[in-house]
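Data deposition worksheet. Section B asks for the primary sequence of the deposited chain exactly as it was used as input, without tags or linkers unless they were present during the calculation. Section C holds the resulting structure in token form. Section D is free text for depositor observations; keep each observation to a single sentence. Incomplete worksheets are returned to the depositor.
Section A, Depositor: J.P.
Section B:
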Amino acid sequence: MGTPDDRAPLAERVGQLLDEGLPLTIVAAGDPVLRRGAEPFDGQLEPALLARFVEALRITMRAAPGVGLAAPQVGVELRIAVIEDPAPVPEEVRRVRGRVPQPFRVLVNPSYEPVGATRAAFFEGCLSVPGWQAVVARPAEVRLTGQDEHGRALDEVFSGWPARIVQHETDHLDGVLYLDRAESRSLSSNQAMAERWAQPTPEEAARALGFELP
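Section C:
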């Protein structure tokens, strides 16, 4: 637990960040804040400031647009992330990827562990790595623990695309980018994705680009 004096600088920085206006600026890969790992949230932001910060994350995520955003992506090294996915995708994509709508929710001090050994590989992107996507094999089902923004315990199993989202955002809090877990030969520009690899699964991309799927 930090002392009040320890916490003040971070709270002041967050307040200043919010006063600069919304949406917040998303930090791009190459900034050390994305690699240091975030400190556990233990009250560094008093409730009103925390609520403002969470709302800023929501606004910034939606404006991007994205389906998740972690605090380090806006330069704040706290273990806080938000997710939300309306899942506006064709039925075939929804079925193959397990992409179902997720309501807006806040993850505080999240951590995850695989449930079973099944892995799923799909193209994945990141707001901090704009313009690119790559195939990442991840556990198809995970157990996520942590709290919400009100301190209530979170212990939930996620599968399909929601499992991918919570893994991606929790990884950010550990200083991990999706590129660290990606098949490097699959790296594709958004333009190439739209023109060549928009299929529900990356099997055709794997054959053409020369990488293996799990």
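Section D:
The first strand starts at residue 68 and ends at 70.
The helical segments are 4-19, 47-63, 91-97, 160-173, 190-196, 203-209.
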